[in-house]
Backbone:
């Protein structure tokens, strides 16, 4: 990582309380590949056999994609707002955004769907930006509860709507493929702010829209 990248990350963390490791440089690509070799040996295989020779390099490249959320600030996506809303002041809902993350306890995939609603306060954002916010937080090591709150709180802080509702439903491979091995079990988390927290009718409308007609 270049000093420029480190400075950017430190600045993002200071400005926005972004939850990233700042300061010391990352290990080199060679160090990361050596670590993957060690894990292959630990699993019981020979990292020098033909089929595995390029695997450490591939794994490290895939990490760049799977964990790219450490290198962007989700707030930036919400800063471009539109104010010509013709007084639209009902719920805006984007539902069933596919989400792929990794649990921070086992580093195994967590795959599910996220639904986000907000009540605009004369400001709206491009709808794809909500999906970008999800992606940025998902492409980090996560626990689902924290990610749900991060998505809701970031939208509340930056866009300042009258309220935000976020619901996440996901399968955790650390419990479907190992451990207690319960395929099909999914976890549901939600965070509500502002009017969604206060208004039971609005909350019900959100959950009805999200859970019915899927
Ligand atoms: Zn786990």
Residues:
């Amino acid at each position: 990582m270049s000093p420029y990248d480190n400075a950017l990350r430190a600045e993002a963390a200071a400005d926005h309380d972004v939850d990233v490791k700042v300061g010391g440089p990352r290990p080199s690509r060679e160090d990361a590949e050596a670590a993957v070799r060690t894990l292959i040996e630990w699993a019981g295989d020979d990292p020098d056999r033909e089929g595995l020779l390029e695997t450490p390099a591939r794994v490290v490249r895939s990490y760049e994609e799977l964990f790219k959320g450490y290198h962007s600030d989700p707030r930036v996506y919400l800063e471009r707002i539109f104010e010509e809303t013709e007084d639209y002041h009902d719920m805006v809902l984007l539902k069933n955004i596919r989400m792929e993350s990794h649990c921070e306890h086992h580093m195994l995939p967590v795959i599910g769907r996220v639904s986000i609603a907000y009540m605009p306060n004369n400001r709206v954002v491009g709808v794809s930006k909500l999906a970008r916010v999800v992606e940025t937080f998902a492409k980090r090591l996560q626990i689902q509860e924290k990610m749900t709150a991060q998505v809701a709180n970031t939208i509340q802080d930056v866009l300042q709507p009258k309220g935000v509702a976020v619901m996440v439903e996901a399968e955790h491979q650390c419990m479907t493929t190992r451990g207690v091995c319960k395929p099909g079990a999914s976890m549901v988390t939600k965070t509500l702010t502002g009017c969604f927290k206060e208004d039971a009718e609005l909350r019900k409308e959100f959950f009805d829209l999200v859970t019915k007609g899927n």
